[in-house]
């Protein structure tokens, strides 16, 4: 059995097809996340023509659209962006938890990186801080994670299709 001594992704071998799936709810925050993600991808050499953006109503709808994008486009990575802001009811936990669990499951099911850039915050102020002000831009960070994972997956050497068969 061969073991890997050390393997990590980089930000050089990142060109490919990326799909950004965006929840429109809290669009005043999410629009900045999208700008940050696209800017990061393009700055690292991803052709803007290879970036698709899909809009859905909110974070709850992200997993279904991500699944369809994985099936139809077969991208190298997906970046899920949205903002779930805690309110006075348990709705926050259901939406955030369900979205996160489903995205994690899809990543494993399709053997394709899905960067989770869905903000789950306690206040609108926290959301604004994470969409390009004090705490950086989590959309840009999600794009960086997606690119690093694309590079890492390529580092395993063999081209494995989403069905798990050798290509």
From TrEMBL:
Q: In which pathway does it act?
A: Cofactor biosynthesis; riboflavin biosynthesis; riboflavin from 2-hydroxy-3-oxobutyl phosphate and 5-amino-6-(D-ribitylamino)uracil: step 1/2
InterPro entries associated with the record: LS (IPR034964), LS/RS (IPR002180), LS/RS_sf (IPR036467)
Which positions are annotated as binding 5-amino-6-(D-ribitylamino)uracil? 25, 59-61, 83-85, 116
| Entry EC number(s) | 2.5.1.78
Q: Which Gene3D superfamilies does the UniProt entry name for this protein?
A: Lumazine/riboflavin synthase
GO molecular function terms attached to this record: 6,7-dimethyl-8-ribityllumazine synthase activity
Q: Which family does it belong to?
A: Belongs to the DMRL synthase family.
Which NCBIfam families does this entry report, sorted A to Z? Answer: lumazine-synth, PRK00061.1-4
Q: Which function does this protein serve? A: Catalyzes the formation of 6,7-dimethyl-8-ribityllumazine by condensation of 5-amino-6-(D-ribitylamino)uracil with 3,4-dihydroxy-2-butanone 4-phosphate. This is the penultimate step in the biosynthesis of riboflavin.
In Swiss-Prot or TrEMBL terms, this protein is called: 6,7-dimethyl-8-ribityllumazine synthase
Say which species the protein is native to. Answer: Billgrantia pellis
> Which gene does this sequence derive from?
ribE
């Amino acid at each position: 059995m061969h073991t890997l001594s050390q393997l990590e992704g980089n930000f050089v071998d990142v060109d490919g097809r990326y799909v950004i799936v965006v929840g429109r709810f809290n669009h005043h925050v999410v629009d900045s996340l999208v700008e940050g993600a696209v800017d990061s991808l393009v700055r690292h050499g991803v052709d803007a023509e290879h970036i698709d953006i899909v809009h859905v109503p909110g974070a709850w709808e992200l997993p279904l659209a991500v699944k369809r994008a994985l099936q139809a486009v077969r991208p190298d990575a997906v970046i899920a962006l949205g903002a779930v802001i805690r309110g006075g009811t348990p709705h926050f936990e259901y939406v955030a938890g369900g979205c996160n669990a489903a995205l994690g499951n899809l990543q494993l099911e399709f053997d394709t990186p899905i960067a989770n850039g869905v903000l789950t915050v306690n206040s609108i102020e926290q959301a604004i801080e994470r969409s390009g002000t004090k705490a950086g831009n989590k959309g840009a960070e999600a794009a960086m994670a997606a690119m690093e994972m694309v590079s890492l997956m390529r580092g395993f050497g063999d081209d494995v299709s989403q069905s798990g068969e050798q290509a």
